[in-house]
Amino acid sequence: MRPVSPSFPALRLQTRPALLALGLAVLAPLHVAAQTQDTSRIARVTVYPGSATVERVAKVAAGARSLTLACLPASLDVQSLQINADPAVRVGEFNVLTEDRDVAAGCASPLDGRIRELEDQIAGVKAEASALQLVDGYLRSVAQTGAGPESAAPATSAPRAATPTPAQITATAEVLRKSGQDSFARAHQLQRKQEALELSLKPLVAERDRVASQRARVVSVTINLATEREAELRLSYQVRGPGWQPGYRATLDANKSTVLIERQALVAQNSGEDWGNVQLTLSTGQPGRATQGQLPRPWWLNVAPPPQASPAPAMAMAPAPAPAIASLSRSRNAAEEAMPTFDVSALDKGFATEFAVPQRITVPSSGQRVTLALGNHSAPATLVTRTAPAMEEAAYLVAHIAQPPGVWPAGAAGLYRDGAFVGNGRIDFGAPSAGAPAGSTGLSFGRDELVTVRAEPVQDLTGSSGFTGSRVERKTRRTYSVENRHKTAITLQVLHAAPVSRNEKIEVESRYQPQPADTAWNRTPGTVSWQQSVATGGTAQFSAEHTIRYPKDVELIERQ
């Protein structure tokens, strides 16, 4: 029979923790392999007007069974989640969790660390400034008493020190002067440093407070998977809020009759995550728009029933459903109008055009606008000197540009003429431009000071007509003259408003000299347009005479 050692129970108690620690050490690598930590990065972002598609890339270790991508923005659209992986990864189901950023591990705002660092530096500066105040108080007490701390001792403890000699007084004064000078200089430096730190802290605190509501919650996506070897997994999702707007800079070379159009894009986002060093693509597509247009409603006719003496109250409520449809339609239209629009007719990629930025871009989540250059295009222009003498005795230079190849979304344009800034305009090849041919746009490059415009006083005569004088006859005559003081000939366009009758009782007869090129310019009846070439130093004359007849008993309504 084997004897039992009295120390055996104690040995077992000491061995269990050791075995447990050994087991945890063995299982730790298995846990790491099964649960891959989030090491994802944003690789590509496609920005639409009002939204963006973000693509994240994560490394998946061999043998991993799940992957969690944490700290994603709360504006993430769960319905848009897409997961793609290399052939070595088999993807199963995934779970989405939305929680407060404060309780999510590792999801602190990037600004918090920088803010704490600056606050610690400010606290250190204040502590050193307080220490200098103690030194300053000590030096003041020494200067007032003329001795060190020993002068404060009781009179009975020791005999009073002898009166210092002039040499000692001079040495003490020099030491106090030097120490005080160093103390005040250091205090001034600390004050400047504190002001600089607080100046750096203010924008960070303001930015953190501004996006506090957006950063209050975060989304985590946990994906169950099986990995044979190390591979990559790509997660894409849409977020609301980011967007881009096109911008242009148009420079007119009047001598060569060309316009250089520089394309620009203004990108901004406040989704809650910074886009750092990403491949950026701008798209004219609009995923947020309605996927189906409104369908026509039936147009029916019926005979109204005979009126009843006392209609039932329910009859008055019968037409109520119709306004509900109209209200829904108006709410949808209002939602669509709130979104930025890009009226693009030509398409380069199926149903949208994409602009890939060649370099990697960083767009912070602060609403800061980042301007990108998208290239330029030199287009031939047709120059027209346009004037409306009755409205203003001035002429303006207008350039008509045909639509260049590709898609050009509508946007604001800065206008330059011969290198000088003249103002702002808008480029929109999709909307009809005043007087421009179809598929082109007109840009006005400011006033032409070398063209002199004169409008003679209006000649207005009123009399009677008809056998009995029952009708009023009114004659109006306008005369204009335009002088070209350029060294070259110009193409002149003169606009004039002619009366248009909207009632059969009112007769209008118009005569022009010379005959205008168009009496409905820009598809507007009554807008008369003369267009002709005017040589150097030449003067062009234009006149319009209108006769208006209407019955005397009619009150004429006139609007100009």
UniProtKB/TrEMBL annotation:
Pfam families: DUF4139, DUF4140. The keyword Signal applies. Residues 45-134 form the DUF4140 domain. Residues 1-33 form the signal peptide. Residues 233-552 form the DUF4139 domain. Keywords: Signal. Residues 146-165 are annotated as: Disordered. It comes from the Bacteria. NCBIfam families: mucoidy inhibitor MuiA family protein. This is Uncharacterized protein (TIGR02231 family). It comes from Acidovorax delafieldii.
